[in-house]
Amino acid sequence: MAKPFRHIRTAGFNISLLAIAISATPVWAEEAVERVEVIGQAASIDKALQEQKSADSIKSVVHADGVGQLPDDNAAEALQRIPGLSVERDQGEGRFVSVRGIAPDLNSVTINGTLVPAPEGDRRAVALDVLPAELVQSLSVVKSLTPDMDANSLGGTIEVESLSAFDHDGLFYTLSGEASHDTNVDKTSPKFSGAISDRFSLGEGTDNFGVAAAFSWQKRKFGSENVETGGAWDFDDGARLEEVEQRDYQITRERTGFGLNFDYQPDDYSNYYLRTLYSKFKDTETRNAAGIEFDDAQLSGERGDGEGWRELKSREDTQEIQSYVFGGERMIDLWTISGQAGYSQSTEKDPGGIAGAKFVGDFTGIGFDGTRKPHLVAGGAFYDPTAFELDEVEWEKVSGKDKEKNIRLDLARDYDLAGNAAQVKFGGKLSRRDKTSDTEVWVYDDFTGVGLDGLQSGSVDYSLGRFGNGISAGAIKNLIGGLDRSQFYDEENSRINDFDMREDINAAYLMNTLDVDDWRFIAGLRYEGTEFEAKGTGLRDGVYEDSQSRNRYDHWLPGLHARYQLSPSTAIRAAWTNSVVRPTFGQLAPGFAIDGADASFGNPDLKPLESMNLDLGIEHYMGRAGVVSGFLFYKDIDNFIYNTDLAGSGEWIGFDEALTFDNGSSAKLYGVELAYSQKFDWLPAPWNGLLLGANLTLSQSDASIEGQGAKRSIDLPNQSDTVGNFMLGWEDERFNLRLAANYKSSYLYEIGAVEDKRHDLYVDDQVFVDIKAGYFITPELQLTLEAQNITDESYYVYTGSRRYNAQYEEYGPTYKIGLTLTHF
């Protein structure tokens, strides 16, 4: 018979996965009730709220439940349960996280206290779908930074903590198997995961050394269907469309993750740890496309002439994250000394694949119907492979690496100040980051007389209209395999996108904590000095040039936190903080291309974003697993960055186009966060098993941009005015159920032109609804059933107005069945 749980480390504000055990026999039932109290959802919430209540900063957490499971498949989707957080999705799956309307690139992610670099070559944002949920013990979002924390986030710092043996008493293990069925591609995919931890006695100590390991493997087959215009609308003469394209995606996504952690606590005054994590994310993608570019822009319902195309993209993209952290803490009298050394590395590799194999042909009597979800209209010739001739094949190979090394030391001393408990803390951190990107491109052309016939694959299963046959990746590879690739090397695109960037940050801080009656104050100052260097290649009217840039800047960042305990169950919090965020690597890219009167380039001289942040809120705790809270927040952001066209100004005065990035003067963001959760255990059965959780964030933003002699105000990109989460759960001694809904209102995705907001791109609002049920067959064996995206929510990007498509994509629901064996 399984032992009941004795101890679990907890953290968090939001709602964890329902996990309950009960019995089919009276003996089992007695034990299961005890387990329910320890690992049930209400217990998880209650322990999480205790950490929130005692935290010095404004902090929210999603914590793994008693069986070592986060409530979602990956870290990004688990974080969407937190107030103020929304998720950017890729192919229907949560990927990047936005905090309080701040774009993902302007937030930071740490694993076990060390920065996580970004696998993507041009971004700072970490794609959190790279991290399987099984490797994560807790996910925290700190929204008001204290001076001892890195100041490199505007919305919040996402802290990932992996499993420790001291999260459980004694031997713990869990094994899970799952099958998921994607309705879009009608495929079933496997997943396996597990974790184990135990403590051992070293020397004269008892259970003072812990080892924990976790693994996860998933191979998921899924897809999506898409129709898009790219925003190619001409609004000067009605709403005329220049081109339209249909796309079908078939993807196999394989995730592999492994973590191994060691903890040593030789006495009550010291602890040491080694945390390791490895995660691999591999996408094998086939995309068939069919589209038309009209000779003259057309209205919906019109028919005319144009060039049609069919195109194949077939690639393999692998992203890896490695993280190693060694640290410890030692108390000596009134002093506490702690330190940590960390190394993390992210890589992205595409060993070589078809970036585009395009066949073209001329057609008459073609057009489209509808503006929101355009339906391509063409005669039979468009579906005849002999009407298409191979135009070119683009082959691309990509590799990128982002490495970060850091070391920090912190010293704290407790002391008495006029009869009040106080602590002074100071320390420093050195961080060294190196990011490289290398792209090689080959463009094969001159395929005179090579038609689509004989290079086809089977019919494409596409529900948004008629599509026809796809293109065979194997046939294309065979076709170009015998050619001399050196004759088709694209030097321009292979050189100007490459870069090597180094970013060194030296930081130091001083802070003091003071408790006066029911008040706690934290005041401090942080210094961060940054040295930046970028190397790359530019192309100026056919001549290549080395491009190199250096920049240095210093920031002094004061902060003040206050917490007042109105009563044992009610606290008021306030914070004034300052933060600094460096531009993305894509914005800083040193490469450029200048051809006559047209230019495009990055801007290594961009200033970092600086933000002054104010937070004020109240929390009231209501018995078991109950809380209601409200927070106001305000951010005043300087040096806001946006894409622009500098043609006609400064050194670009004689140019028709000069596309780059520039600093705006300022941007403001303000809003309110409301949250509520409660277990209704005082109600009569069966209502005493009811749990309810909800949060709502309302925000507004304003930023000013200029270019091409024009100036206007915009919302911050990626900022949704309304973000909300709702959870309704129920649990008894044997069965658990959770219904979860996530809502995100529309937001600005990309600025079209400063002088013409009609071509700005917006992502439409979305509501994702999931339901999950669990049933304990035995005290240690649980069966789970889950349905994701049960409302079949789509992804829609529009051009200026919701009437005009830029991209429409459908994914369909996903259904899962799983079995989890757990031993405490």
TrEMBL record:
Secretion signal span: 1-29
InterPro entries according to UniProt: Beta-barrel_TonB, Beta-barrel_TonB_sf, Plug_dom, Plug_dom_sf, TonB-dep_rcpt-like, TonB_rcpt_bac
TonB-dependent receptor-like beta-barrel domain segment(s): 377-790
Membrane topology qualifier: Multi-pass membrane protein
Domain of life: Bacteria
Keywords, comma-separated and alphabetical: Cell outer membrane, Membrane, Receptor, Signal, TonB box, Transmembrane, Transmembrane beta strand, Transport
UniProt subcellular location: Cell outer membrane
Any matching Pfam family: TonB_dep_Rec_b-barrel
Residue ranges annotated for the TonB-dependent receptor plug domain, each copy included: 53-157
CDD domains (alphabetical): ligand_gated_channel
Keyword Transmembrane helix annotated: no
Keyword RNA-binding listed: no
PANTHER family, per the entry: PLUG DOMAIN-CONTAINING PROTEIN (PTHR40980), TONB-DEPENDENT RECEPTOR-LIKE BETA-BARREL DOMAIN-CONTAINING PROTEIN (PTHR40980:SF4)
Family: Belongs to the TonB-dependent receptor family.
Protein name: TonB-dependent receptor
